[in-house]
Amino acid sequence: KEAVEYLVPKGRHLVINEGDYVRVGEALIDGPINPHDILRVKGITTLARYLVDQIQEVYRLQGVKINDKHIEVIVRQMLRKVKVTEVGDSTYIIGETIDRRSFDEENARVLADGGRPASCEAVLLGITKASLSTESFISASSFQETTKVLTEAALAGKTDYLRGLKENVIMGRLVPAGTGLARYKSYDIEVDNQDEDEDEDLEKDSAGTEIPSALI
Predict the structure, then answer these.
(1) Phi/psi at 122 (nearest 5 deg)?
(2) What is the rounded CA–CA span in Å between residue 118 and residue 94?
(3) Does domain 12-75 have CATH number 1.10.10.10?
(4) Are 137 and 160 in contact (CB under 8 A)?
(5) Which of 25, 40, 214, 54 is nearest to 121 (CA)?
(6) Which CATH number fits domain 134-178: 3.30.565.10, 3.40.630.30, 3.40.50.170, 1.10.150.390?
(7) I want to staple 12 with a disulfide (CB 3.0 to 4.6 A). Which of 20, 25, 29, 56 is the partner?
(8) β-bridge partners, 82
(9) Is the CB of residue 105 less than 8 Å from the CB of residue 92?
């Protein structure tokens, strides 16, 4: 058995005793855990659950109830980037940070051509960094560092395809959600007016009918 030693910071207390069995990723001392360590040791799912629980605990102490899905959306944006560790036959560079969706698409292309796929590791971004690293430079410029974001986008010749909600609101366009989705734009709405037509015909018949004198 290999012995492993860990330094305990001054003022922190151990939550385990001598002879206890410890699982990988289990806390040895009290206090908050570094989320980057959780991501490195236990993966994305465990980190996402930990972040949601910690944020919810703050609101619960204040008596505020928030559905987990609202926090999960934020956590998802914080975990949508990956760092390339092995390039394989892809066009990436080692250490490059890219969007997870783009990475999966590139790997699918490489595998279709019979090449070696790239490898990556998950990256946890802060809220500010995650907001500034979106594909839409219009959305990023509305958050912070407007001049810097727009200047870099102009120098790189970027194109914003207005796929998100925020950039469409800024440009005064219909947001791509609900009935504003692209697949609904070519639909024609047909209204069944049969009942209204029957009511109108009935009113006309009633107005044009003469009342017999015997009934007066």
Answers:
(1) -70, 150
(2) 10
(3) no
(4) yes
(5) 40
(6) 1.10.150.390
(7) 29
(8) 98, 122
(9) no
DSSP-derived secondary structure letter, 183: G
Residue with tokens 């109830």: 65
Q: pTM of the predicted model, to two decimals?
A: 0.69
Q: Please, is 120 exposed, middle or buried when counting C-beta atoms within 10 Å of its C-beta (0-12, 13-18, 19+)?
A: buried
* Number of C-beta neighbours around residue 168 at 10 A: 19
- The DSSP code sequence of 32-73 is PPPHHHHHHHH-HHHHHHHHHHHHHHHHHHTT----HHHHHH
**Cα diameter, the chain:** 114
* C-alpha angle 154-157-159 in degrees, rounded to nearest 5: 100
Mean pLDDT confidence for 175-200: 72
Q: How many CB atoms lie under 10 A from the CB of residue 81?
A: 20
Nearest to 85 by CA among 123, 113, 114: 123
